[in-house]
């Protein structure tokens, strides 16, 4: 028995494959696309920019203060050159009566900064020579850094109308408060 090899059909060389396909299939009509598939659910909104800004502000805050960040139990202390060390010691012992007081407990840094500026402006306008600012010890602050305490320290050091400041005596708030001597009009 001899087998015949199957006949192989070679398409003519001059015919195009697409033309052959169309001739084999015949006329076609386009199918409607139908409804689009459902879109992926959108992610829940998140304040990503605010989170990034907060992280940047924290890192800039640390850089601005360098390694001088105060801890929860650290005392604040500062005096200008024109203020004697005796005046600073008296301030540390609480021998100056505070004419007004500002409590910054439990508020965010931006609000605290605004309140502190306004409080000092008001005290100067009223001619108050000594004020007490309660900033808290910062034991429960993020990453163990007392944010408000360091903010108050930085702001008071930058103001020309602040002559000296020192952490209050224990009976007046200890390292959670600061007594501030202001330059008054004479």
Report on this model:
It contains 5 helices and 5 strands, in the order ααβαβαβαββ. The protein has helices at residues 17-25, 48-65, 85-92, 109-126, 147-158; strands spanning 77-79, 100-103, 130-134, 162-167, 177-182. It has a 5-stranded mixed beta sheet, with helices on both faces. It has a domain at 71-182: 2-Layer Sandwich (Ribosomal Protein S8, Chain: A, domain 1), CATH 3.30.1370.110. It has 186 residues and is an alpha+beta fold. β2, α4 (109-126) and β3 form a beta-alpha-beta unit. It is rod-shaped, with a radius of gyration of 38 Å. 35% of the residues lie in helices and 13% in strands. 20% of the residues are buried. α4 (109-126) crosses α5. Residues 26-53 are annotated as: Disordered. This is DNA-nicking endonuclease, Smr domain. It comes from Solilutibacter tolerans. Keywords: Endonuclease, Hydrolase, Nuclease. InterPro entries: Smr_dom, Smr_dom_sf.
Write the layout of secondary structure elements.
Layout: H1 17-25, H2 48-65, E1 77-79, H3 85-92, E2 100-103, H4 109-126, E3 130-134, H5 147-158, E4 162-167, E5 177-182
Helix pairs in contact: 4-5
InterPro entries: Smr_dom, Smr_dom_sf
Domain Smr: 102-183
GO molecular function: DNA endonuclease activity
Main β sheet profile: 5 strands, mixed
Question: How much strand content do the residues show?
Answer: 5-15%
> Ranges with pLDDT <50 over ≥5 residues?
none
Percent of residues in helices: 25-40%
The separation of the N and C termini measures 132 Å
Q: What CATH architecture label of the domain at 71-182 applies?
A: 2-Layer Sandwich
Derived from helix and strand composition plus strand pairing, the structural class reads alpha+beta
Provide the residue-averaged pLDDT.
Answer: 81
Q: Which CATH first-tier class of the domain at 71-182 would you pick?
A: Alpha Beta
Give me the side-by-side strand order of the main sheet: 1-4-5-3-2
Number of extended strands: 5
- Oligomerization state: single chain
Our Rg estimate from Cα atoms comes to: 38 Å
H-E order:
HHEHEHEHEE
- Overall shape: it is rod-shaped
CATH topology of the domain at 71-182: Ribosomal Protein S8, Chain: A, domain 1
Number of helices: 5
């Amino acid at each position: 028995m001899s087998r015949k090899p199957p006949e192989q059909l070679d398409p003519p060389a001059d015919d195009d494959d697409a033309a052959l396909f169309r001739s084999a299939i015949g006329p076609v009509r386009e199918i409607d696309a139908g409804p689009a598939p459902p879109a992926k659910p959108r992610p829940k909104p998140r304040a990503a920019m605010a989170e990034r800004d907060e992280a940047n502000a924290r890192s800039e805050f640390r850089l601005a203060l360098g390694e001088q960040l105060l801890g929860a139990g650290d005392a604040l202390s500062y005096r200008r050159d024109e203020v004697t060390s005796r005046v600073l010691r008296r301030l540390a012992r609480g021998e100056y009566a505070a004419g007004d007081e500002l409590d910054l407990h439990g508020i965010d840094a931006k609000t605290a900064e605004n309140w502190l500026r306004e409080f000092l402006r008001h005290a100067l306008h009223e001619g108050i020579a000594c004020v007490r600012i309660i900033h808290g010890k910062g034991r429960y602050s993020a990453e163990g850094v007392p944010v408000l305490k360091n903010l108050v320290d930085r702001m008071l050091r930058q103001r020309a109308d602040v002559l000296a400041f020192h952490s209050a005596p224990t009976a007046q708030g200890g390292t959670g408060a600061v007594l501030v001597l202001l330059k008054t009009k004479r």
